[in-house]
Amino acid sequence: MRILRWAIIALIVGLMQPLTTALWAEDAMVEPTGRVILTVSGKIGATNSGDTAQFDLEMLRALPSESFSTTTLWTEGVREFTGVPLAVLLDNLGISGSTVDAWAINDYLAEFSVSELDEKAPIIAYEMDGEPMTRRNRGPLWIVYPYDSSAKYQNELTYTRSVWQLDRIEILE
């Protein structure tokens, strides 16, 4: 009986280990092996490249994800988006600041207060309708809210924070 119990515990730990080691190895954040698509800097506790945290697509996919279907002002019809909630990403990085600056590749900037982030929204979407996003369709990363789910997401401020072609985030005081 004791052997069976230890076998079950070993199986559970073995199944959970890939989830916890996907971004962390021996208390250090792993480095991206693919093309870097997101760089986070500023008041963060975890880094993997100097004083920044760099992510490739697989690293973002290793984090807990959310999916929802919604319309947007910029696309036709209802689209399904999948990505990591911004709050989850920031929590994993151990941030100590209270302001998030999100930058697009064309230097468009949107500012957020960390206190305004919901646990599940917005997400940093890396898929639209089950496919990776390209620069032509606002990717590879897009900050997206579930606009259709609540009137609180249907306002000018939220729309201006919907940064597509997101490539960097800075955490400020």
Automatic annotation (TrEMBL):
InterPro entries: OxRdtase_Mopterin-bd_dom, OxRdtase_Mopterin-bd_sf. Residues 76-147 form the Oxidoreductase molybdopterin-binding domain. Pfam families: Oxidored_molyb. SUPFAM superfamilies: Oxidoreductase molybdopterin-binding domain. It comes from the Bacteria. This is Oxidoreductase molybdopterin-binding domain-containing protein. It comes from Shimia abyssi. The lineage of its organism: Bacteria, Pseudomonadati, Pseudomonadota, Alphaproteobacteria, Rhodobacterales.
